[in-house]
Amino acid sequence: MKSLAPLAIAFFLLVAPSTPAQNPLLPKQELLEKETFWDNKDWEWYKSNIPFFECPDAEIQTTYYYRWELLTKHLTYGSPNSGYSFTEFIDRPFWSGTYGAISCPAGLQLYEARWLRDSRYARDYSRYWLKTPGAQPRNYSTWLADAIWATHQVHPNQAFLTDLLSGLKANHEGWEKRFFVPKVGLFWQTGHDDGMEFNINSRQTKDILRGAPAYRPTINSYMYADALAIAKIADLTNDKTTSALFRSKAAGIKDNLQKQLWDPKRKFFFRFPNAMRNPMVLKSTPSPSPTNLVNTREANTAGNS
Length: 305
Hints:
By secondary structure, the protein is α+β, with helices and mostly antiparallel strands. Helices cover 46% and strands 8% of the residues. It contains twelve helices and eight strands. The chain has helices spanning 5-15, 28-34, 43-49, 58-74, 106-113, 120-131, 144-154, 158-163, 165-179, 217-236, 240-260, 293-296, and strands at residues 75-79, 83-86, 180-181, 186-189, 214-215, 262-263, 268-269, 272-273. The longest helix has 21 residues, at 240-260.
């Protein structure tokens, strides 16, 4: 029963009364005005949408409300057809997609936005990635299907969710077409496009910004979660064929990740370089054998990303 406590608390915070006439448990206005960082002082929006929180640790409490202000700073309304979406950078750099969104933080953004009482923010953003031209859902690693399924757990809407199924399948197939190596059974990605540019591993390569393509625990964990989420959505429509297919995909990714990226010596998961696709890897790095990645891992640390 203890494991259910955090979920129960979060659910209570989400559905707690939001109007003064209902005597809310926490003094909302007082909690908001207690913080000094505010740029956006739309108190009524906060009181109508966010779960309120109070604790004895002032730093945790300030951080909690600061996160919600950051969400409002990146919330944007694109168009009547697209609705709401979120930016990663306020200045909307040239590498962002339509209305300034970037897929790298999309999973995190949906996991936060789902707790807003008004479900349209998370639903619009979910739909954005699959139906808005120029959305670029595969420019960076993300766990889109998993995040959309997680949103459904807070704001159940089977019709909305199943309407996205074909788009989620197509997105996963797009990842497979470009990044999946069947002989290895894993997805590869560069450090930069995995959201980890200029990392300690990329600095061991000639391209310190992007690093070397590698079979990374991160991207494969995301694709495992996405495949499993697609299977669960398919279950809602009794699409047994899709459900079985994506459960099989998820099981294969999990099995290969655990067998090929786990280092028993260091007792942790490590990325393994995909040198066959990497012209920038150090010359001293031997090419890995797709059939024997574990045995050659230690010999390839120079080109890891």
